[in-house]
Design brief:
- This protein starts with a helix and ends in an 11-residue tail after the last helix.
- With 101 residues, it is mainly alpha-helical.
- It has a domain of 68 residues.
- The chain is 73% helix and 0% strand.
Length: 101
């Protein structure tokens, strides 16, 4: 499966309803972080291919897009870590929800 197909599959797996508690939010953030990582992988591949085909502006724009995707992944890791820490200290609700696999 290509990175793009994996990303699309990841996005299709996101629940259509908002999280109802801290555990659901943590599960959602886990899935969103994974999708963000896949998006960064897709942009990396496009950037690599474009280097020999596109002009310098395109290459620069793809480099910026890739870096922003990486930054997004890192920020989601911070959010997930904080959410998990908050959930553990507040004893987040444990009812099953659509975000958990």
């Amino acid at each position: 499966m290509s990175d793009l197909e994996a990303l699309l599959e990841e996005l299709r797996g996101l629940p259509p309803t908002p999280p109802s508690d801290a555990r659901d939010l943590e599960a959602l953030l886990t899935r969103v972080r994974s999708a963000a990582g896949r998006w960064a992988d897709v942009l990396y591949e496009v950037r690599e291919v474009a280097q020999s085909i596109a002009g310098p502006r395109t290459a620069a724009a793809l480099e910026v897009a890739f870096r922003r995707a990486e930054e997004s992944y890192v920020e989601l890791e911070f959010a997930l870590d904080d959410c998990g820490r908050s959930s553990r200290t507040s004893g987040g609700k444990s009812a099953p929800g659509p975000y958990r696999e």
